[in-house]
Amino acid sequence: MRVRIPTPLRSYTGSVAVVQAEGTTIAEVLADLDRRYPGIRFRVVDEQGRLRSHVSIFVDAERQRDLSASLEGIDELTLMQALSGG
To answer: Per-residue pLDDT for 66 more than 90?
Structure first.
């Protein structure tokens, strides 16, 4: 499946905006991403295994916060991060 990576996380993917990952749930895709791009999962999921509050995941354009959600038949997952600053 295609995974769209937000600009702040592209340092993990060598500046690549769209990468491939495998998994049948969001959690499995994030684990596969971390195998391919070490450290990226920690920027998306906290120490308790929950999606960080400033991160949104879109599954084929629908927002999803349940990491156990099935990705069967899904073509694309998009990671987004809210940015703050002044």
So the answer is: yes
Whether 85 shows a pLDDT value over 60: the answer reads: no
DSSP codes of every residue in 19-79: EE---SBHHHHHHHHHHHSTTTGGGTB-TTSPBPTTEEEEETTEEE--TT-B-TT--EEEE
Q: Is the pLDDT of residue 82 over 90?
A: no
Assigned token pair, 66: 């349940």
H-helix or E-strand spanning residue 2: strand 2-4
Domain CATH code at residue 21: 3.10.20.30
What's the domain count of the chain?
1
pLDDT for 84 beyond 70: no
